[in-house]
Amino acid sequence: MDLRAGEDGVLVLCTANRCRSPIAAALLAGLLGDVPAVSSAGFLEPGLPVPPEGVAALPACAPELAAHRSRRVDAAALTAAGLVVTMERAHVRDAAVLAPACWPRTFPLVDLAARVQRVGGRLPGEGLRAYAARLHEGRRLDSVLRGSAADDVADPMGQSGAAYVRTAEELRRLLEPVAAALRPR
After folding, report:
1. Alpha-carbon distance 64 to 86, whole Å?
2. CA dihedral for 136, 140, 142, 146, sign (positive or negative)
3. What is the distance between the alpha carbons of residues 162 and 50, in angstroms, rounded to a whole number?
4. pLDDT value at residue 6
5. How far, in Å, CA of 26 to CA of 10, rounded?
6. Helix (H/G/I), strand (E/B), else coil: 10
7. Helix intervals (H) in 73-160
8. pTM of the model
9. What dihedral angle (degrees, nearest 10) is formed by the CA atoms of 116, 140, 26, 8?
10. Residue 162: in which H helix or E strand, if any?
């Protein structure tokens, strides 16, 4: 998965790009097929693997997750992405600090899943950026950052295999309606 997927691509972010975002990207790519392109990144050290518990939590994507190495997001990747999906509300802030122009296209996954239910899916011929703009209508940065930890996808890093399985299940539940909404028509 190319970190610079371009304006028709989805960039999934978490803290270290070792658990939630690679699992979410693998799930989303599986749900979407090849379009739009899906990549993942984080804010910490690059080059680290997904823990074995994370690989085991998603058997269908085990080879891809075992080969994954963490990547550090940069302003160019954030600027290029058509949609940025974060695992925590704080990641929205971190992304907007790196690339302020990405704010209207950057959503915490929990919020994004709720928004696609209200707004509906992409319209015929609607690009990902245009769809993100529709999802963004009426949104304020302070409302995104005011949420509680209950609005974030829990980080299983350092926990048991069962915690990784719970996170993968939560990600699948949240990503299924998002994938349905993102599919080009």
Report:
1. 20
2. negative
3. 15
4. 53
5. 12
6. strand
7. 75-80, 89-98, 109-119, 128-136, 141-145
8. 0.94
9. 80
10. helix 161-182
For 117, residues 6+ apart whose C-beta sits below 8 A from its C-beta are: 177
How far is 84 from 34, CA to CA, in rounded Å?
Answer: 17
Q: Given 3-state DSSP classes, what are the helix, strand and coil percentages for the chain, each rounded to the nearest 5?
A: 55, 10, 35
> Residue 149 and residue 88: Cα distance in Å, rounded?
8
Q: Which residues of 101-119 are buried (b: 16+ CB within 10 A; e: fewer)?
A: ebbbbbbbbbbbbebbeee
CB burial of residue 75 (10 Å; 0-12, 13-18, 19+): middle
> Which residues lie closer than 8 Å to 10 by C-beta, 6 or more apart?
25, 28, 36, 37, 38, 39, 81, 82, 83, 84, 85, 128, 182
Amino acid (1-letter code) at residue 94: D
pLDDT at 7: 60
Q: Mean pLDDT over residues 70-75, rounded? A: 97
